[in-house]
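Quick log. Single chain, no ligands specified.
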Amino acid sequence: MKINREFTKNSKSPYENIKFKKASTEILNPDGSLVFKLENFEVPEGWSQVASDILSQKYFRKAGVPNKLKRTEEKNIPPWLSPRVADEESEDLSFSSEKNSQQVFDRLAGAWTYWGWKGNYFSSEEDAKAFFDEVRYMLAMQMVAPNSPQWFNTGLHWAYGIDGPSQGHFYVDHENSKLTRSVSSYERPQPHACFIQSINDDLVNDGGIMDLWVREARLFKYGSGTGTNFSNLRGASEGLSGGGKSSGLMSFLKIGDRAAGAIKSGGTTRRAAKMVVVDIDHPDIEEFIKWKVTEEQKVAALVAGSKICAKHLKKIMNACHNCEADGESCFDPNKNPALKREIIEARKNEVSENYIQRIIHFAKQGYKSIEFETYNTDWDSEAYVTVSGQNSNNSIRVTDDFINAVIDDKDWNLINRTDNSINKTIKAKDLWDEVGYSAWSCADPGIQFHTTINDWHTCPESGEIRASNPCSEYMFLDNTACNLASLNLITFMNEDKCLNTHLFKHAVRIWTLILEISVMMAQFPSKEIAKLSYEYRTLGLGYANLGGYLMSKGISYDSDEGRSNCAALTSLMTGTSYATSAEIASQQGPFPGYQQNAKSMLKVIRNHKRAAYGFNDEYEGLHVNPVPFVIEDLRDTKLGIEAQKIWDEAYQQGQKSGYRNAQTTVIAPTGTIGLVMDCDTTGIEPDFAMVKFKKLAGGGYFKIINRTVPKALEQLQYTENEVSEIIAYAVGHGTLKESPCINHETLKAKGFTEIELELLEQNLRNVFDIRFSFNEFTLGRDFCLEKLNLNKEQLSDMNFNMLSALGFSNDEIEEANIYCCGTMTLEGSPHVKDDHLSVFDCANPCGRIGKRFLSVESHIRMMAAAQPFISGAISKTINMPSDANVEDCMEAYLLSWRLGTKANALYRDGSKLSQPLASKLIEDESMKDDILANEPSPAEKTITVAKEAAQSIVYGSRNKVPDRRKGYIQKAIVGGHKVYLHTGEYEDGNLGEIFIDMHKEGAFLRSLMNNFAIAISIGLQYGVPLEEYVEAYTFTRFDPAGVVQGNNRIKNATSILDYVFRELAVSYLGRNDLAHADNTDVDFSLGTGADEGALKNNEIPWKLVKKMSSQGYLRGQDNLMVINSDSSAAHYGNPEQELSATTPTSSSITEQPLNRVQAAKMMGYEGDACPECSSFTLLRNGTCLKCDTCGATTGCS
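-> predicted structure:
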């Protein structure tokens, strides 16, 4: 092939006009420990820190790269293209990591050129050099990127001589077409990301059930993804050859799911990328559809049930010990009223009778506490690990016959796999309802439209398409593979915001050739995949950044013009790729399976061509007509004309020479590679947020407007000053100098000096909420304590709001917040016209006040615009709001089918149990006012409290506290009045009495509080649960009330009683919901999280223990042993009379601070932590998730 130079010049380096910079990167564990660090590596100057991080952390070869290289001689290979190896004769030879992006670009482009030369793909050596240079330039300029396995594996042997033993791979030799077993791990790379594998209804033989787990493991180990249609497996009610019944499809799916999960935890930090597909007529289809719903219900039950059991079993244990009866009477519910009451309460909540009896017997043996593990809903928690179905994307295959049966309300037959007899007949509509409910409930299963997929199948004579890769964009025959690459659309825009069609076609032509060469050079994980991939040579060229491309042109994603742009781009890409494939076929011959499928493939090309020319009908062999391209909706007429003409060329060349590839294009999620190219959006997705947080080289983030927004505003004819004001509204002014309510003048009145204001201003540029800047770390601890009169407890409380403590109201804080940090949306912005807001609509509402977001239909219609011009399919998430109902889900599926898309995956906000609701963040502060407005009057509250207290009386034997008892004294100031709260405890630590004393208070209130405390104490000793008092007396309102000082957990109280019972609830019941601050600042805490066991401020352990124990209470018998988390013990006192104090075992519940989740959601992220880097920057990416910080993805691209 002839290769033209469009970006480079002959005899000059492709990097000549590209400036490079030094960069550094590091990966830290959540505890701050270093995982990886690389300094002073080179990347192009225009690359962001995130792109630099991903290249260095993920794609740089970390070992085995020699610093001294020499060329090897190889027959018929030009010297400049010969493979290189380590120069063993060099005295200073050493091996290390790649340290320059040029090394990566060179090894990728060099390996493709080398294998292209060996395969006779170039017309001359000059063409090979041009190819080598053009590819390196496009990689450096972030114009195109291949899928991750190419970055990992390609060129290591060619560039550095890196090699190793075979890993069980196969390839077909391009010279003799023979299937060959690999003898090297890297000479032929494994560049494919997407695989489809078959399964036979056989337990242990090759190609069977257990063999599939091995084949999947080989792919998962090296980061690829795979999909399989499991419909060949017989249902649970079908017979076996040896008698009996099959264990059924679901039992084996659960085995495969656990296998995939184990591989994830054993070798990588991301879950396996796996797709499970089942036909709609399978006997076990109903159970499959409800699989994830059922499993998520199990998780919910585990979480709730574990907490209920732990709560009641603890109360039963306490009731056994807080009893003054003799002998074993305390363990007999007929003689211990408190125990009887707790058993009844436990039974009401379905606590197992076995466990109730077990705890009573446990207590009889002298044990006074139990460990009952509780669970949470984190998606990587023990609760989710316990259930199945969490390591795959699930999809069902539906035919047009089924869809029509649903529409006509007909019956539907489920077919046995062994003899094709009818297993069961059900209503199609009932089965469809189950699909809708499951999708609404847990975002699974997705749907693949089998008839539509096979209507566009280029090789139907070779068999049906029955499955897809995990992200659903690659759909072809079983046991085939696809390698992907994506073009960054924005890099092909001219200054007039039109697509440079000439350069775009040039790039498509070169990258179609690269992917074709990759098929020739590749090795595959099984014989079948190697054979069929050689015979059909499927490719996966696509694009990224469509959302950014449209926004920068000032075009709404949800508009006819937006969809026409999408259709034209896709048409031009696929048409050019097929034309290139025909050009290669004219020299190399068509793919081996072409002759058998020539008529069908040319029919598909004709249908592509008809759609490009806007035909509404006259399609060949289609059950559902596609959405045609409407050139009249396009302002860029040159693009429209090119998008149509290219199909004439592709068809004519195909008629003459055939095609080298059965498929050429897909639209992948472009997760990690999208970040490497600094794309604002992935694949065909819209943008997710107006304001982005750009990572800085030295750590931290810098808030910037989405870089396509200024371009869009310019296109929409806004002036420079208007654009500046609009951007300031979105990102804020980054200063408080001229801010309303909270500014330099008002802060100076509070005690701030110029020094503190300068420190504050430096920090304000990087935050998205001004409250995060007002802390001791920004302003200095001494200033906060001495000048602002704050106390240590307040400063160490991570939820402390300094601005509120300084006297600013919520409305004032919010007004200043908008001025300084912006709204992160353009809604309500000055100057922006209402009819222009749609240009800036994102997948989710933006910022705290944003209400607009793209409709469900807009996502589906954009997919439908692209689908007629894609060989494969499209990986895309259909975002739905949390208030969408089941009917909405079913309608979305039907609309997708009617518009001719091949697959659909829904994601309703909140449909995953593990994910926080975005809608929860959109609550106004005014809701607090609504709550207060509906609160009963003090008189009504007093009557209610009296009634509740009366109902709480339980008559029985009085359980008095010991004569020498332990407890604590808490001093606090409530509304300016000092209050001393004394507690007395039973030996097991339960509360038995309280005393309330008020300092310098009138005799009436002081005496009233004392007698009230006595009444409460008597109630506690007669078995009234503390919970009853807490529910009755918290939130009571009377003076004195107001700010609470001196208590590190309670910061405000509506009355003395509200304060007292909040304190008791927090200290004795663990009711942290009634506290205003967390417990990280408790003086005697020995550590938290990763710092468990670490001593604060180099304190002596014994002094810490002294804070928790009373010298007087122990009467000098204080010989304690402090046990650290590393199991080493430090002894104090007399070892013969040793009393050990160990750190209590913490609950398994690990709850992320709500403010981190909220912050992530307001920034446009999902609200989950990345399993690889723990950053809260996970984004929906096609049908998967990607991390915007480290580039980790749950997909296979």
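Residues 1040 and 1174 are 45 Å apart (CA to CA).
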